[in-house]
Specification:
mainly alpha, two-stranded antiparallel ribbon, two-stranded antiparallel sheet, globular
Amino acid sequence: MNTTVTVTTPAQILRYTTAFITGAIHQSQLRRHLIETLHRETPITNQVTLKQLNLASEALESAISNSSSAIRSSSLSLAEKLLLPLPDYPLSSFLLSLIQTLRNRTEESAIILLRIFHSNPSLARSEIAPSLYEHLFCFHLFHVFQWFDEQRTRILPSASETPSRDGDTDDYSVSNDLVMPYAKLLSSVSGGQALKLKELEREYEEVLDKNCRVLAVYFKEVLVNKDEDATVSPPLLILKSAAGGGVDDGGGLHRKEEIQMPQLENGRYNVMLSLMLFVYKFILSFNSTYK
C-alpha cells in the first residue's frame, strides 16, 4: 500500500485544542474535575507553589463566572501573574491555557496545553485530554499501533487469523463476527503468554509516551512557524522493541526504529485503528487478572 507523509496544519491543531479548552471553560464540572485530577495525579509538595496554584485557580474561576469586564480582566491578570513564575507543572499549564483562550490568544493557549502532553503524556492522553489525543495524536500513530499488533501477534499467533475484509475495499467492520474470535482466543491464553502481554503493555506505554512528546514538539513548531513558504517536516516516530529484555523482534534482536509518519492511501485508517485499539484494551482487561 502506498503511503504519503502527513503534514499537520496550524488550523487542524487549533481546531481540536480550542474545542477542548472551550469545552472546559463552558463546563464547570468538567473544568473542576480536570483540576482535581491534575492535583491528585501530579501532587506538589511545595506549599508556597501549591498556594499560588490555588489562588490562581480561584482567580480564574472568578474571571469565568463574572460578567463584569473589569473584574474579568483583573482576575485573569492576577491568575496569570501567579502562574507565570512557576515551572511547567501540568496544572499550571492547564490553567494558563484557559487564561490564554479567555484572552482570545488561541495559538498561545494551544502551545501551553501541548506542554502537558510533553511533561506527562500518559496522564494527558488517558485522563486529561483523551479526545484531543484521539483526534490529533492518534492520526499520526498508525505505525505505533501496527507495531503493537505485530508484537501481540508474535505472542498470540492465532490472533492474526481474523475474518478477512469484504472484497478489495479498505473498510473494516468491527462486528461480532470479528470480536468473537479474539474472545475465544483470549480464553485460552496461558500464564506465560499473559506475562509477555503484560511486558508488551509496559513497553507499548513507553513507546506512546516517547512519541507523544515528539508530536507535542512538532505541533508547537507548526504553530510558531510564521514562514508561509516553509513547511515544518513531520518528525520521525520512535519504535522501541524489547528494551530491557522485553518482547523481541522475532529474531532475538532488540531494535529501535525511527519511521516517517504515514497516511494510508485514500485516508482509510479510522476503522482499522479503532479495531487495533479495541483489541489492545481487550487484551489488557484480560491481562489484569494476572497482576
